[in-house]
Specification:
The protein is built from 7 helices and 15 strands. The chain is an alpha/beta fold and 233 residues long. It has 2 domains: 114 residues, Response regulator (Rossmann fold); 111 residues, OB fold (Dihydrolipoamide Acetyltransferase, E2P) (Beta Barrel), CATH 2.40.50. Strands 2-1-3-4-5 form a 5-stranded parallel β-sheet. Strands 10-9-8-12-11 form a 5-stranded antiparallel β-sheet. The longest helix is centred in the middle third of the chain and has 14 residues. The mean pLDDT is 90. One of its GO terms (cellular component) is cytosol. This is Two component transcriptional regulator, LytTR family.
């Protein structure tokens, strides 16, 4: 599933684009914006694979918006062909002319599929047990090691604890299925499928500690909105 956000100052254009996306298999529109400033405030905390940006907008155009979100995969839409060269200078995925046809938009998403690496249902990494394959469905949560913060401790559903050697949370998020894993504070990330109870500041996992109590994890202010959206979607 490719998750996208839309930015266009015209509500009718947003509705039409969402309709086209719904007709393309494997595409989900997670959010739509008609204001560039609101988009920039929220996009970093939005779980998405690609941003579809209109170029001609009052106040701040799509080219200016794209420059402020480096690293994001972008598809530009516009009725004006003169922006094509400048758009591709920004190394965007595609440039789709309006009026947008479903077939042409599907081609743009095919390019995204070729760029996004396929996430497997397991990870393979050096651990305290040597090179180890861990099936992602077995991971309940992962936290920074108390001995060496460069290492990460993965707690599995059978209470096995595996030490992942010299691995950052960013690397983990790139390796793990995005739909299932999310960071909740600077030192911990969870498998969303194993969340039992969620409140504004705490998550209870479906795993008991060595003392027999449910595992409770802290949600920091930085990640609260994002994790709330992920769990209530």
């Amino acid at each position: 599933m490719i998750k996208c956000v839309i930015l266009d100052d015209e509500l009718l254009a947003i509705s039409y684009l969402k309709l086209l996306c719904e007709q393309i298999e494997g595409i989900e529109v997670v959010k739509a914006f008609n204001n560039p400033k609101t988009f920039l405030q929220e996009v970093e905390n939005t779980d998405c694979d690609v941003c579809i940006l209109d170029i001609e907008m009052p106040g701040m155009n799509g080219l200016q918006v794209a420059e402020l979100i480096p690293g994001k995969k972008i598809i530009f839409t516009t009725a004006y062909k003169e922006y094509a060269a400048e758009a591709f200078d920004l190394d965007v995925v595609d440039y789709v002319r309006k009026p947008i046809r479903k077939e042409r938009l599907a081609q743009a998403f095919d390019k995204i599929r070729n760029i996004i690496p396929e996430k497997k249902d397991f990870i393979e990494w050096h651990t305290n047990l040597g090179k180890t394959i861990i099936f992602t469905s077995q991971i309940i949560y992962i936290k920074a090691s108390g001995i060496d913060s460069r290492d990460k401790e993965a707690m599995l559903d059978d209470n096995t604890r595996i030490i992942l050697k010299n691995l950052s949370f960013k690397q983990l998020l790139d390796m793990l299925p995005e739909k299932n894993f999310a960071q909740i504070n600077k030192k911990e990330m969870i498998n969303i499928q194993h969340v039992k109870v969620f409140s504004s500041a705490e998550i209870i996992m479906d795993l008991a500690s060595s003392e027999g109590n449910p595992v409770k994890l802290f949600v920091s202010d930085v990640f609260r909105v994002h994790i709330s959206e992920r769990l209530t979607r």
